[in-house]
Each structure stands twice: as structure tokens, then as C-alpha cells.
Inverse folding.
């Protein structure tokens, strides 16, 4: 989803425009057909980070990192190989769902969610689930595979300044 490219709600005469993984919610009392068509066109467009890339240093020591060195190395090198795009925000304030076209079933980065979520995931945890990557911006429960952590997760979300990650932003991981 190219959430960053969606028209702003004031441009549409809408009360709200919210992007999801595969849907867009447009809320308003009387939306013009042209407004709906502009949302559909933007949703079909590829995301654009605007050139700025957030680079995150990761310590790969998560409990769900593969034990076998070859599998671990494949996962880390694949994660760090190219930038990810923030597709949309959700679950918790500042939690960005990071996407890449090459993360498909069968790739080292495509890991299923845990059947039983953890009661506590530390802030800064780098995680993978169902084709997405994410960094938990603050402590919370979660069912994703924890593979590492970043320092200073408080940078990702601050109630005073909002979320650092925005739909369409590019994120790079490095060891």
C-alpha cells in the first residue's frame, strides 16, 4: 500500500483516510466520485520514501534467531540486503509495518507469527512475521519472531513529537 501517496483527507473532503495492508478506509458523509478514484489511483501506485532513509543498527541476539549459523547468516544478510518501506502504521503508536517485494513465502524472512504471543516484547525489538518486518517502539505483547534489537527505541515514537516512521519512509537495517 502506498499510504504516503494517498490524498490528504482535506483534499478529499473526507473525515479520515487510513491505509491498511491491502485496504484503504475513507470516511466521510458525502464523498465525490473523483475523491474515491484519486484514492484508488494512489493505492495502486508504488510507495516513495522521498529519498530519506532511516538507518538502524541491529544487535542480532533475539530469541527467535535461527540457531544454525548458515540459517542465521542467511536471515541477517537478507534482512540487511536492501531497504524496507513503511507500508502503514498500526497495532501500537509508532509501530510501522515494513514491507519489501522480495519477502514472499519460502524466503528466509518470511516467518509465521507465533501461535501464542509473548506477554512482553521489549522496546526496540526487531521482529519478523508473515512477510513483514518491524521494530517495537515500546514494550508490548506480541506474536512476532524476535531476531534482534536496536538501541534507543524511544526515537521511534514520542507522544510529544509523534512517530518517526511514516508510511512510505525507507528503513535500512545493518549489523
Amino acid at each position: 500500500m502506498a499510504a504516503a501517496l494517498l490524498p490528504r483527507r482535506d483534499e478529499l473532503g473526507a473525515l479520515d483516510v487510513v491505509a491498511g495492508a491491502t485496504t484503504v478506509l475513507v470516511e466521510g458523509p458525502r464523498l465525490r466520485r473523483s475523491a474515491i478514484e484519486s484514492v484508488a489511483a494512489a493505492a495502486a501506485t508504488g510507495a516513495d520514501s522521498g529519498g530519506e532513509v532511516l538507518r538502524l543498527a541491529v544487535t542480532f541476539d533475539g530469541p527467535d534467531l535461527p540457531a544454525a549459523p548458515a540459517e542465521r547468516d542467511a536471515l541477517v544478510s537478507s534482512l540487511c540486503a536492501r531497504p524496507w518501506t513503511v507500508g502503514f502504521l498500526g497495532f501500537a503508536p509508532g509501530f510501522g509495518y515494513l514491507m519489501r517485494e522480495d519477502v514472499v513465502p519460502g524466503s528466509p524472512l518470511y516467518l509465521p507469527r507465533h501461535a501464542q504471543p509473548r506477554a512482553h516484547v521489549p522496546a526496540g525489538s526487531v521482529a519478523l512475521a508473515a512477510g513483514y518486518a518491524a521494530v517495537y517502539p515500546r514494550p508490548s505483547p506480541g506474536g512476532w519472531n524476535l531476531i534482534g534489537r536496536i538501541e534507543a527505541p524511544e526515537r521511534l515514537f514520542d507522544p510529544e513529537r509523534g512517530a518517526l516512521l511514516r508510511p512510505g519512509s525507507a528503513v535500512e537495517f545493518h549489523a
Notes: The longest strand covers residues 53-59. The radius of gyration is 17 Å. DSSP finds three helices and 13 strands in the chain. The mean pLDDT is 83.
